[in-house]
Design a protein that fits this description.
267 residues, mainly alpha, 9 helices
Length: 267
């Protein structure tokens, strides 16, 4: 039953990622959120007779992740403070032509299926009557990651309301400079961990790991890009200079303060 479920996931991702043909950034924002949420709704229906317990909770968390991201992206796009960035996104997107748009659409749709694949594998193994001792640990990490992301986004929104022109260094931003990206990595690491009991053979290990590897590099690249933007905006502020030199960029308690020198990363 795995092949039909994968085909369903791909059909959902292709359909919902097509938002990007209207505005290129939607391939990786609204299309991303909608693809994950839709898979979390419809793929469990394929296994509706057997999906239960921690595996069902995992699907609920993936749905919550997609819905939260979709709401966040929609609200951010409407915010007055984001309009300059929005205009830049539109300008960059207007340079992307038909064949490249199609290539982006196909590649991100496949990526969203691969990101969801560990959850699908867990459903399939559960349907076969096998035990899945790794799922509770993965679900715990997913809860932690989703909580970190949600809290970080809320804290930054509140901080920007009080001081729109100042960098955010309150709450989780005292621990790392980009806690929302860290939370994203924790969430998807949890998805991957949950399926450790379901990876049988080299192919499932490989396919089940691609999504985690790609999203990790995307988060590293996004951290580097945001670091560059913040340096341009706040670099002359002595308080920001101290903050950037003493607060880890992404991983708590590890003394890595900058990714600017890692030129091959792209966000």
């Amino acid at each position: 039953m795995i092949a039909p479920a994968v085909a369903l996931g791909l059909a959902l991702s292709l359909g919902l990622s097509a938002f990007g043909f209207k505005r290129v950034v939607y391939f990786v924002s609204l299309g991303y959120a909608a693809s994950i949420a839709a898979q979390a709704i419809f793929i469990p229906l394929v296994y509706r007779d057997t999906v239960r317990g921690w595996v069902l909770i995992q699907s609920a968390l993936l749905l919550a992740y997609g819905l939260r991201l979709g709401v966040f992206v929609t609200m951010r796009d409407r915010a007055a403070s984001f309009q300059t960035e929005q205009a830049n996104n539109v300008a960059r997107g207007s340079k992307v032509r038909g064949p490249l748009k199609i290539a982006i659409w196909l590649s991100v749709s496949v990526l969203y299926v691969l990101m969801f694949l560990p959850a699908l594998l867990s459903m399939a193994v559960q349907a076969a009557g096998q035990a899945l001792p790794s799922v509770p640990m993965g679900v715990g990490l997913m809860m932690a990651g989703l909580g970190i992301e949600t809290c970080a986004d809320w804290q930054k929104t509140q901080a920007k309301r009080l001081a729109p022109s100042r960098f955010c260094d309150t709450g989780l931003f005292r621990v790392v400079r980009h806690p929302n990206y860290f939370g994203e990595m924790v969430f998807w690491f949890g998805v991957w961990i949950s399926a450790l009991s379901a990876y049988h053979g080299l192919l499932t290990w490989l396919l089940g790991s691609i999504g985690l590897v790609v999203i990790t590099f995307i988060m590293l690249g996004s951290s580097r890009r945001l670091e560059t933007k913040q340096t341009d905006r706040y670099g002359a502020d002595p308080a920001y200079q101290v903050y950037a030199k003493t607060t880890p960029i992404l991983f708590p308690f590890l003394p890595f303060y900058s990714l600017a020198h890692v030129r091959w990363l792209r966000g």
